[in-house]
Amino acid sequence: MDEDGATEPSFPEQEWPTLMMRGITKRCARCGGRKIYDSWFRMKERCPTCGFLFEREPGFFVGAYLINFAVVIVLLFVACMGFVAMKAIDPEASATVPLVICGVVALVVPLVFYPFARTIWAALHLASSPIEPQEVDAAAAFLRGDPVPAPSLSTGSIGPRGRRAADRGDLAGPTPGS
Ligand SMILES: [Zn+2]
To answer: 119 near 27, Cβ under 8 Å?
Structure first.
């Protein structure tokens, strides 16, 4: 065992099924670690096991809202189809029960599913854009207790904000001092 590097835990990249399973079970997509929530709705900024910064770019978790929304829509569709089937069997069937079910689904499911939607989205995102070296460095620094280098939100090359900043830099850089 070599001295340097041996103390740094490594988190090998995983295949899609593993990442998705971690997302569905509310675990960190990068390492599979648990305890990434302080409460049902409050996700930790970084994974306590691997140091991964969950919000990888500005507006990152908008995708989680889409997942949550899609799940509710699918469930409402199933409920509506159930009502259609009910009506086929008994044309006099009342709509009250299906409406109550739909109301409960629309109100309760987004709250219950919220943390899962976030970890599923994080897993999907990690599967499509693997972790970058600066994210690995920042995560390792976090685990060591070192000051974490500038968050990847501002250093990341992706995103309109970063690009605009880079453009400004380009403009400011070569200004000729005549
Ligand atoms: Zn982790």
So the answer is: yes
